Amino acid sequence: MATLRIAAASAHFGRDLEFDLLRIAKLVSDAREAGSALLVLPDAALGGYLADLRHPDPDALPPALDPDDPALKQVAELAAEMVVCVGYREADGDRRYNAAVCVTGDGVLGRHRKVHLPAGEAAAYDPGDRFDAFDTPVGRVGMLIDYDKTFPESARSLALDGAEIIACLSAWPTSITNRAPRMAQDRQSRLFDLYDCARAAENQVVLASSNQTGALGGMRFLGQAKVVGPGGDILARTWSKAGLAIAELDVAAEIASARRVLKHIDERRPSSYRAALP
After folding, report:
1. What is the total count of domains within the chain?
2. Deepest in the core among 10, 132, 153, 194, taking most CB within 10 A?
3. 223 within domain boundaries
4. Sorting pLDDT into bands at 50, 70 and 90, what band is 278?
């Protein structure tokens, strides 16, 4: 059996890239000390998320980084032998994307641009257009960025591309329109956990879900980082606090066990499903 330790981070990040890199360095160090081979950092860990999702201020957006920005290279250097996923706002000519990159000290392993943009985000980002898994030293991995995981097709696309581990990077806030007095009662808090468990169980894969904590402008983030097994069971979690959710498991063995009797991917009936509408 080849066991793997997976860490999902719950932490606060803002506009100060120097501060963000110091926090990333600490999280990488803590994950390494705990024996983790994979660390999933939150969405917008470099530069912070939007301060107001309903009415984003174009003069107060996160910094836009080129795909080869020195800050991303620094994350790769910090990763060294580990596999690290991190989120940022990406610049591509005149376009801007909510993006994630997966790196080791040897360089980039995979990239993702957030496909599903909630209302308000279109003022700050352009949508991505694909979901691709990629090979890494810890297995085949795919990435989602927060709202992507609301749509079952997103994780299913990665599973069909052979992903064994899905890294969900989030800057997921409490409900903006109907805030509850306690975070545990918040609708978005319940949905965040529900989507994590459902995406893992329906695809019978391992899911590592990171998220931001604290507040930025009018946004209050949930935390609730976790590692979910292929049966939909939560193996480790941070609840609403900052920290690392770390789980150790044999990914291939756990997936094989979950698929021993019912193998969802093979038992699909695509000819019975409605085709996507234009």
Report:
1. 1
2. 10
3. yes
4. low
